[in-house]
């Protein structure tokens, strides 16, 4: 057996990690590749020759430069079910769909239970608001002393209109009070009382038959629009710019109509504006309903249940008032 068949002695190796290589190649560093073009790899497996040969005991006081550091194995990250990244590598808070506008978010709509709970909460709040409004309308219509009082004291109506205006813009424009309990409920309650008083005051100027007929038509319109929004594939939320223009045009037209009618009452002009406003607010109801339902281009965040109830309630009341004025002006 030749000399080359025996393993080299410990003293003969300049680097205990690697035996000498033939061909004139340079000696590698002790811990993995660190030369040009090679990244540092501290977790390499032990190579032959890294430990001393049998019978060779290193000095305990000598630093063990020949032994690589013990690095614990790297475990893959554990992905919990609540983590934003699921096991398929998709974002559970939205798959890169269109971001919402107006502070809305469609992030939590992937969970059907969250969506259904949000819809129930919105419609329960809106139902409570409508019950309060119907109660005001009934009292102001059937109770003659109250009806006479609100007709003679129009200043109370303008005070309620100011309260309505302030609370509406606070709830619409300020996200903090709108989401902070109990301020959101308090503001919504004040807003509902103010608008209910306004609605009852306007209803007191019309006879009982017109009020009941307007209530029935409003209920029918709201049911049809809600069922249509749940079933249709038409996305009203993708036409946000069009609805913004409709709102601005309706607002300006209402101011002009109010100024003209204050000087001279024209029944056909009053009926025309009431019909246009009823149609526009019906379209607003369809738009806001799809924002609450979700699964469209835009949707309201589940945290905005107060905002959703506010929008639906305002649409329904405006539809009722315009239908009432349309029926009352025609008589």
From TrEMBL:
List, alphabetically, the GO terms of the cellular component aspect.
endoplasmic reticulum; Golgi apparatus; membrane
Which Pfam families does this entry report, sorted A to Z? Bax1-I (PF01027)
What ranges does the record list as Low complexity composition bias?
32-48
Query: Secretion signal: which residues?
Result: none
In the record, biological process GO terms are: negative regulation of apoptotic signaling pathway
Query: Does Kinase appear among the keywords?
Result: no
Record's bilayer topology term: Multi-pass membrane protein
Span list, region Disordered: 1-53, 80-105
Q: Where in the cell is it found?
A: Membrane
Q: Which residues form a coiled coil?
A: none
Which positions, given as ranges, span the membrane?
122-149, 155-173, 185-206, 212-230, 242-262, 268-287
**InterPro entries noted in UniProt:** Bax_inhibitor_1-related
Family statement:
Belongs to the BI1 family.
What is the name of this protein? Transmembrane BAX inhibitor motif containing 1b
The organism named in the record is: Erpetoichthys calabaricus (Rope fish)
**Upper lineage:** Eukaryota, Metazoa, Chordata, Craniata, Vertebrata
């Amino acid at each position: 057996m030749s000399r080359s068949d025996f393993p080299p002695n410990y003293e003969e190796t300049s680097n205990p990690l690697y035996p000498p290589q033939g061909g004139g190649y340079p000696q590698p560093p002790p811990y993995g590749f660190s030369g040009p073009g090679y990244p540092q790899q501290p977790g390499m497996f032990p190579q032959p020759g890294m430990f001393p040969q049998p019978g060779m005991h290193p000095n305990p006081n000598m630093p063990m430069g020949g032994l690589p550091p013990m690095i614990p194995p790297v475990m893959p990250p554990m992905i919990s079910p609540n983590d934003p990244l699921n096991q398929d590598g998709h974002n559970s808070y939205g798959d890169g769909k269109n971001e919402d506008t107006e502070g809305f978010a469609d992030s939590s709509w992937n969970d059907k239970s969250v969506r259904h709970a949000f819809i129930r909460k919105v419609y329960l709040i809106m139902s409570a608001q409508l019950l309060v409004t119907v109660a005001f309308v009934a009292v102001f219509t059937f109770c003659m002393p109250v009806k006479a009082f609100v007709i003679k004291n129009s200043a109370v109506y303008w005070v309620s209109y100011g309260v309505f205006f302030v609370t509406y813009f606070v709830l619409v424009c300020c996200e903090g009070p709108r989401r902070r309990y109990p301020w959101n409920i308090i503001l919504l309650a004040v807003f509902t009382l103010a608008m209910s008083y306004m609605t009852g005051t306007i209803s007191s100027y019309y006879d009982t038959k017109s009020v009941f007929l307007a209530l029935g038509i409003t209920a029918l319109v709201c049911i049809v629009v809600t069922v249509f929004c749940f079933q249709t594939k038409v996305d009203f939320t993708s036409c946000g710019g069009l609805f913004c223009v409709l709102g601005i045009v309706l607002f300006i037209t209402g101011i002009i109509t109010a100024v003209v009618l204050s000087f001279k009452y024209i029944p056909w002009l009053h009926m025309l504006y009431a019909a246009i406003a009823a149609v526009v607010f019906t379209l607003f109801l369809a738009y806001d309903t799809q924002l609450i339902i979700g699964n469209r281009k835009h949707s309201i965040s589940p945290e905005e249940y107060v905002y959703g109830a506010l929008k639906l309630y305002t649409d329904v009341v405006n539809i009722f008032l315009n239908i009432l004025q349309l029926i009352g002006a025609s008589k």
